[in-house]
Write a structure and sequence with these properties.
heterodimer, A: mainly alpha, about 0% strand, elongated, B: alpha/beta, 6-stranded mixed sheet, 4-stranded antiparallel sheet, about 25% strand, binds adenosine-5'-triphosphate, binds magnesium ion
């Protein structure tokens, strides 16, 4: 830390290296896509694992997100905005923003970490070297199935999250906010654009790719023993969460 | 035949290999000995491109493989089987799936033929009937033997054994010694074994090479090594704490 310039220099070099490494890994993933059907069983296994392990947490988060967005919207509307727009506000917020982003953050914490831990352990115990020695490329064998699972499962989880979150908002509106079912639902339908749903799912698709790629990359980069695995796991969740939030901004400014 | 020419490998400031020259002849068993941490595992990992040297060349059957990557490297590796020091079994797969992994990926054998082959390889290492266990359910020595079975599943031309007998009881160790000898005599397999076990080394080796401070300081038959006048070699093979090598 003696020389701050040297410190910044080192950090920037390692940043560029990491970006390069991730891009290189993505290249290898795309190159292995034609071989996907050879590993189709592995892909299905990853998909079901990813879905099953994160579904309960995603649903729980969504119910309360929907509920709180209903409460907050009602509070801000108070006497200025009629309550028939409550459904609109909850629907838009959930479908465009909250559904995809919160689902992605939950999955990053639940699945991104377990990918990094699993591949990291394989790396430090030489299991990945063993695959290489058997002339089996670890990318199509380990990474691509997880990548495809991320791309497909995140949108599916997001659809469920959207639905449950809106139900959460609706229930709260009915029970605690004195808004009738008809008012809420007609508000929900009023400005409902299918385009918004597609945009939300597109985000989820990209986020799924981010979570799987970063998890795998960090796993492969693991050095040392158990401590290294722990570090990779933490890094996987931090980096993918940051990328999800940054990516969210850029996708939003492109699409809307 | 494999030739290692002036191989150098550094990890940061740690200059592990400092100009290794060594040749492995066809159908011979070469044993590499040397102190713990001297770079034996690092050396053998270069032969299959798991590590890349900072300097020097590896030539396998006349091909310079030093800079092989991707498809070429995978093609080269089909000639090799390797037993890792820590066994390196895939812990998400059963013993049977581990041994059959290469067969499933690289051959057009049907499921039955694969099972048959897996069974025969496990029998070879004295582990019949354990196909459905997971690596976590095995002892260290059993894992090692599954690793051996996996290394030999694809009938490789070259087999690298990184400490094949460490962690085995003396009787099982001798079974493995006999197995390595048989592979060489009957199938003309070129074996490269890393070991600390001098009993095993003298039994299986056609040639013994000693790695010390990043170089090969001795290379000859078991008979020659016994008669070597080099005090370092003598200290090592007699396992003595006093001599030119300082234990710490
Ligand atoms: N991937 C790596 N990164 C950094 N250093 C390494 C790596 N692999 C090995 N080393 C270093 O290289 C040296 C030689 O290690 P190696 O595993 O080859 O020893 P060895 O001769 O096989 O010892 P042993 O008989 O105990 O297995 C050690 O100092 C080790 O710290
Ligand atoms: Mg070793």
């Amino acid at each position: 830390m003696a020389n701050p310039l040297a410190f910044i220099g080192r950090k920037s070099i390692s940043f560029v290296e990491q970006v390069g490494g991730v891009i290189f890994l993505l290249g290898r993933i795309f190159k292995s896509l034609p071989k996907l059907f050879g590993n189709f069983g592995l892909t299905v296994e990853q998909m079901s694992q990813m879905g099953v392990s994160s579904l309960p947490l995603v649903l729980l988060t969504s119910v309360f997100t929907g509920a709180v967005s209903s409460v907050q919207a009602a509070y801000q509307f108070q006497d200025f905005v009629p309550m028939r727009y409550l459904g609109t506000a909850v629907g838009k917020a959930v479908v465009i923003e909250l559904g995809p982003v919160l689902t992605a953050l939950v999955v990053a914490g639940r699945v991104g970490t377990s990918i990094a831990a699993e591949l990291g352990t394989m790396k430090v115990t030489e299991q990945i070297d063993a695959l290489e020695t058997l002339a089996i490329d670890p990318v199509p064998f380990l990474v691509t199935p997880r990548f495809i699972a991320g791309l497909t499962m995140l949108p599916i989880l997001t659809i469920m999250a959207d639905f449950v979150a809106i139900m959460g908002g609706y229930t709260v509106a009915l029970l605690f906010l004195d808004v009738s079912s008809h008012t809420f639902l007609s508000g929900l339908k009023m400005f409902f654009h299918f385009r918004d749903v597609i945009a939300g799912l597109f985000k989820a698709f990209i986020f799924g790719g981010i979570i799987a790629t970063i998890g795998c990359y960090q796993g492969f980069q693991t050095r040392g023993g158990a401590k290294g695995v722990g570090q990779s796991t933490t890094r996987a969740v931090v980096i993918s969460s940051v990328l999800i939030l940054i990516g969210d901004y850029f996708i939003a400014s492109l699409l809307f | 035949m494999i030739q290692i020419v002036d191989l150098h490998k550094k990890f940061g400031d740690n200059h592990v290999l400092r100009g290794v020259n060594l040749t492995f002849e066809r159908c011979e068993t070469t044993v590499i000995i040397g102190r713990s941490g001297c770079g034996k595992s690092v050396l053998v990992k270069h032969l299959i491109g798991l590590l890349k040297p900072n300097q020097g060349k590896i030539i396998v059957d006349g091909e310079d493989i030093t800079n092989y990557r991707g498809a070429k490297l995978f093609r080269l590796r089909r000639k090799f089987g390797m037993l890792f020091q820590g066994s390196a079994l895939l812990d998400s797969m059963t013993v049977g799936e581990n041994v059959g992994l290469g067969l499933r990926h690289h051959t057009a054998l049907g499921e039955e033929a694969i099972q048959e082959r897996v069974k025969s390889r496990l029998a070879l290492v004295g582990l019949s009937g354990l196909e459905s266990l997971y690596p976590a359910e095995l002892s260290g020595g059993m894992k090692k033997r599954v690793g051996l079975a996996r290394a030999m599943a694809l009938d490789p031309q070259y087999v690298i054994f990184d400490e094949p007998t460490t962690g085995l009881d003396p009787i099982m160790a001798d079974v493995i010694n006999e197995l390595i000898i048989r592979l060489q005599k009957e199938l003309c397999i070129t074996s490269i074994a890393v070991t600390h076990d001098m009993v095993s080394a003298t039994k299986i080796a056609d040639r013994i090479a000693m790695l010390h401070e990043g170089r090969i300081i001795f290379d000859g038959t078991p008979e020659q090594i016994r008669q070597s006048k080099d005090p370092i070699v003598q200290q090592f093979i007699q396992g003595s704490a006093s001599g030119p090598i300082k234990p710490v």
